[in-house]
Amino acid sequence: MNDKKLGVRDFITVGIFTAILMVIEFAFGMLGYIHPYVVAGYVVILPLASCIPMMLFYTKTEKFGMLTIMSVLIAILMFVMGMGWLGAPLIIVSGLVADLIAKKGGYRSFKCTVISNGFFSLWICANYFPVIVTADSYRQGLLEAGYTEEYCNNLFGAINIYTIGILVVVCFACGCLGAVIGKAVVKKHFEKAGIV
Fold first, then answer.
1. Which helix (H) or strand (E) holds 182?
2. Contact between 2 and 62 (Cβ < 8 Å)
3. What does pLDDT average to in each consecutive run of 10 residues of the chain (196 residues)?
């Protein structure tokens, strides 16, 4: 493992893969307009949809801080996109924990990468913080934006203080599963092609 400080190339890599993650998040996030249960399903959809780019990112990660910086950038971008600051601590902590776990495995351990990605994926749950913490004002905002009462009822029925624990566990599990799938795809297609 390279113990040197992060360089320009590392920051560029983080920026590129953060942008890719945000494009995936935005694209699949649009599906939430279809039905609120899709919003709850982000914990399954997003870790699996982003598994290949994340595993490509892990192949480029050899220094501590890259996952943490990515999580900080995600927190900033989520704030800019209107998700507020409530989820920022979870996003950053999940990135830091993921970084520490990956570092423990020398950024090459399959087991540590799988667990690391499981923790990193928890940033997705930050999407739910406004729904839970500011439920009344969030509901009012949805109604004023043109969402139906039925949509709001289903959304708050699926995402609330009683279901958030289940959503977090599912998100972690899908992050781990996504890492396994992503690693297999990267090994089969990208490593054999000499891309990584």
1. helix 164-185
2. yes
3. 77 96 92 91 96 95 95 94 84 97 95 98 92 91 93 95 96 98 87 59
Cα separation, 54 vs 16, whole angstroms? 11
Its CATH architecture, for the domain 8-191, is Orthogonal Bundle (1.10)
**DSSP per residue, 49-99:** HTHHHHHHHHHH--STTHHHHHHHHHHHHHIIIII-STTHHHHHHHHHHHH
CA atoms within 13 A on the CB side of 40: 20
Please state, in angstroms and rounded to a whole number, the distance separating the CA atoms of residues 24 and 49: 7
| 33 membership: H or E segment, kind and range | none
| In the chain, where the domains are located | 8-191
User: According to the 3-state scheme, what is the secondary structure of 97-164?
Assistant: HHHHHHHHCCCCCHHHHHHHHHHHHHHHHHHHHHHHHCHHHHHHHHHHCCCCHHHHHHHHHHCCCCCH
Residues with Cβ within 8 Å of residue 62, at least 6 apart in sequence: 1, 2, 107
The pLDDT value recorded for residue 1 is 45
